[in-house]
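The instructor's notes for this session suggest beginning with a concrete chain rather than abstract definitions. Hand out the sequence below and ask the class to guess, before any prediction is shown, which regions might be ordered.
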Amino acid sequence: MRFRYLAVFVTFVAALAFLAAGCGGDDNGDDDGATAAEEEGGEERDVSFDLPIGVITSFTGDLSSFGEPIDTAARIAVDIINETIEEEGFEGMSVEIVASEDDQTDPTAGVEAATKLVQSDNATVIVGALASSVTTPIAESVTVPNGVVQISPASTSPALTDLADDGFFWRTPPSDALQGQVLAEAMAEEFGADATVNTGTRNDAYGTALVGVFEEAWEANGGTIGASVSWNPEASTFDTEAQQLASGEPDAWLIIDFPETFAKVGPALVRAGGWDPTRTFTADGLRSSDLPGDVGEEATEGMRGTAPTSEGAPAGDAFATAYEERAEGVSRQTFDAQAFDAVMVAFLAAVRGGASDSETIRDNLQAVSGGDEGGDQYTFEQLGEAIQALLDGEDIDYEGASGPINFDENGDPGAALYEVWQFEGNDITTLDSFEFEPEGG
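After discussion, reveal the predicted structure:
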């Protein structure tokens, strides 16, 4: 596929109406935080803190194929931070992952995991969860009421932008308010803007929101939505939904799901007949290298999708090298770079604020990765220099392994890079990586 976008980053503004309005009463980083150096007249500070981070990921459940790589990436970030502190001679600072908990891709288990991390492990930052349907109740029931910073490396539901979070919820991947438009653009390039598309999705915060954004964008650009089918991820069979989705001889399909559920939906679609994976697009939720083996190539071969990518990111190549050297047999998956960045920005916010309590980190997150409003740019390869700059009272702009990040006032990334990928046998091939800016952005 030939995309008409260059593989570079761009900061996008909130052109979508539901992103531009309301913002859920957030106040993320609105005052840009304050450094101890600024309060002391710009002199270098003696900063001392231990930063306890808890990880909530999906070691089991629908997103289990993503769980271990995300935990591994977070731990690699901690190792690099502590090694840099020691090598550069910074005293009094340390970072620790106090525990990694399994949310089982289940809201109840996620809330229990978060409660443990906050009440028993005294985490002041939680990296997680993955599924938006798990992240939301964690925020509403645990992290926001307890005033604990939560940074999701994988939750992309547009509804999270409007979360009433008092500034405690952040995320390192871009909202699906953008990815829905990316999918519409990619499918228009392939099938024509006036094509008929059948859509199928899991009925949860991730699936329904992403399909909703896509359908609105698709019809606004002259396309037609044929069948629009949703399913209960907990159902035991999906033959009826598969027959509905395969019907009508559409030009193409869009399917939004997670691997464990698609392990049943995919074979049901093959049995239904009339469905063609080579004319099907999906998104990041099915970008798992385990999927062809788990589902069967009949249900995956030639399927394409979009996903946030670290390819072309400021520190993407360096992170890929670090991961390969340190991961000890754990293969990369989607959103591992976002988990790495979540740990990095939490640490840098603590350095800037001079403390590791949640309020200090909340008040300094946007300031350490704020795009054009920030200071000199640093990747994790220049972590020692970034720490020294913060100790000297200077502003910095962290450039991530997953992208520039550039947090906006809602705690969402203000810049994004996407890829179009494809299943080829048991492999995932990147067909294109590109910037995307909404019209008017």
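Then share the key points. The first helix runs from residue 17 to 20. The radius of gyration is 21 Å.
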